[in-house]
What we know:
The active site is at 92 (proton donor/acceptor). It is a single chain. This protein is an alpha+beta fold. It contains 4 helices and 3 strands; from the N terminus they run βαβααβα. It has helices at 27-38, 66-69, 76-84, 104-121, and strands at 2-7, 63-65, 90-94. Helix 1 (27-38) links the parallel strand 1 and strand 2 (63-65).
Amino acid sequence: GSVVASYPYDDSPTHRLTGVYSKSADDEVFKYLAKAYASHHPIMRTGKPNCPGEEGETFPDGITNGAQWYDVEGGMQDYNYVWANCFEITLELSCCKYPPTSELPKEWENNRESLLAFIEKV
Length: 122
């Protein structure tokens, strides 16, 4: 996991593991939606999630193009965009895939304003 808002495309024509910006026709809209979420999250907006083992990983404005971060061939986000015209972003909310129950109130506080800002864009 990480703390970042990722947007399509997650797959790229070259299928390189990382570093390929795979721009969709609606790239600016996706960036707008991802920033709407990330800019209200106290950790995500810094672009420095500081996850154990990935301390040097950074995301400008707390967002990333999926394929630029890592290539995912056949992912649901891209499928839904291409075949159903769904504008989805992927939200990585924690370095820990399964945070302990004791951390959930803090996670709620970190994400509440982001969720409301994102919903307002709909």
